[in-house]
Each structure stands twice: as structure tokens, then as C-alpha cells.
Write a structure and sequence with these properties.
single chain, 284 residues, alpha+beta, 2 domains, 13% strand
Length: 284
Amino acid sequence: MSNTKISTEQGSIYFIREQNLITKNLSPFVKIGLTALHRRTTDRRNDLQTGNPRELFIAHEVVVPCVRAVETALRYKFLEQNVNLEWHIFSENSKNQIEDAFIYCEELKNRFTKYTPLIEEAKRLDNTKSEGNAIPASEEAAYWQNEIQLHHEIIKICKRAFIAQRSKAKKCFENGEQLPHGTAIRQRIVSEIEWDQLINKYPSVVEKYLKIRLSGVFRLSGKRAQNNGEANLRVLQTESEVEKFFELFDTEKNHADPSPELRRQQIRLQQLAKFSSVEKEIAR
């Protein structure tokens, strides 16, 4: 366990729906969002009601640990239904889909409730100075090691597709062409600070404004067990999804407005990478 980025902060996940005041028909639009525990979800609904001609109501609400991680998981789960920021559109016969979303949210709550103590322990270890001693192997440690390495491998496989998309976007930008769908180019300032010189020349500034961590890092050693049939299958499935992406990507004639099949495959890989990222953080 080391350097987990998941916050265990509690909060509320809410699903807000719209209803036509005249016909009483429900809109297919659903807002999935979060609020901190100190703020009522009804206050958030009232904020959104202003300027909306349809009545907004809270269709479902649940208090969860790791609220930001839960919201992220929900956002990626329903990425294909996303239309604008936190608003999603479900099919006309959307009752079952929305009910499934409620159930999935409850499953996430149960899962993160189970792993919250592990996440807190990971943070404690991360802030504990390492003495350089190896922790004896155990079945539990082996399980989490395999989880970290499995999801690291899945993320690495998905990155091949993401790198190809970024390269395509960069080439389009350099040629003055329209950027591929779902990509953007941003300028980034790269620091060229010589940290050793800065520390030697301005030690008081470094001490005052920069946090220097003295804790060691708890690292896992070894490789993923190759005899884990389920894990190997997941890796093969990810490779298959990436191959399918490249088949569509390499034959796409208009990357600025790609085919629905390519868009769905892009979303599929984003979901795989994000879910594995969350799983990897839990395993840390």
C-alpha cells in the first residue's frame, strides 16, 4: 500500500429528474451529482430549479464514503449517456436504466464502505517512515499485489489507444485541421528548475514553501501471478477491445465526427482505464 489518492470523505450522491408541469411526463434527462454532508441536497435542487420550466425532484439519494470516487465511477459508468457535464439522457423507456443506476450506486456504497478502513490504513502507512524492512508475504498481500499489477497492466494496454488519439490530435493541430472528436490541445509550461541548486541557494525558501516528505514508500515486489485464469482473461479482453479500437480508428475517414461505433469504443476504453485506475488505488 502506498500513495493512495482516494479521499474517504463522506457525502451524498443524488439523482435529480425533471417532470413537465403540464403533462406530468418525465424528462429523459437525469442529473447525477454530489453534495458535501454539510449541505442539503434539496438546497442543490433549489439552485438548479431557478430558470428551469420543468419541476425538478430528487429521484434517489444515498450517503456514501469516498463520495468523489463514487461519483467518478458513476460518471464513467454512464459516460455514453452523458450529454452535458453532470446531465445524462436515458432512453424513452428509461425506468429500468435509471433503476439500474440506483442499484449500481448502492453497490458502490457497499464496496467503498468495505474498503474505507483499508484506504485509511494505506494513508497511515504512507505517512509512516519506512525502516526498510520487508513485510512477510501472506495470501492477502499476494491478492492485493496481483490486483495492483493486473489493473496496472489494463491501464497500460488502454494507453496505447490514448497515445494514438493524442498523436492524431497533435498532427491535426500542427496542420491547422479540425481536431478529432473528444480531444483538445492545451499549452503546458514545463518547469526547468534545477531543484538541487534551488535547495542549496535558497534553503529557507524551500523549507518555508515546499513540503519535503521524509516518509518512505511501501512497495510491493514480484510479478503478477500468471496462473490466475480470471485475471488473464481480463487482460486478453482488454487487448481485444484495444484491437477493435484500432480497427475502427485506422479506417476512420472523419476523426472530427467519427462513426458511432468508434465513439462507443473510445468510451469503452475510457471506462476500462478509469475503473482499473480506481481499483488500483483501492488495492494500494
